[in-house]
Amino acid sequence: MSDASTTRYHPLSRALHWLLGLALVGNFALGLYMVDLPFSPARLQYYSWHKWAGVLVLAFSAVRLLNRLLSPPPALPHAIEAAMPSWQRWAHHATHVGLYVLFFAVPLLGWSFSSAAGFPVVLFGVLPLPDFVPVSESLADVLKQLHELAAFAMAGLVLLHIGGALKHHFIDRDGLLARMK
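Above: the chain sequence. Below: its structure as tokens.
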């Protein structure tokens, strides 16, 4: 085992990582499930839950970004970084940047889509949130497609991130995953 386990992330960073990861996977699964349901009270409830989870993802993302700026991640252990080909280092950084961009883009696009479609976001059914854009069917159509595209892009990056972590854990056996446990 390398020195990866001695360069662990801050406990708050680790907690936010796993909390946000679970929220993203759960909300993506809910989104896939609800879109093809027939119109019903259950479908409306799932949409509300999806919106609430999206707002929470946005809030967790803001806290996570602030935490990352105030408590930068530990550097990759030298042995691991030296063993990584340059394309893997590039993929590592590009995946993280892409994820952070999409942490904000996906929920903001969803919120904007909801506003344009004329369905306000009411957090937990009690706190109405402001609409970002005016009601517009044509704008709603565009925002819906962008929200879906961004959500699938984020799902792809999450799978790439998980795949990279599993590669380091099971193939390289370099202890990298221990930094986030």
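The chain has a mean pLDDT of 94.
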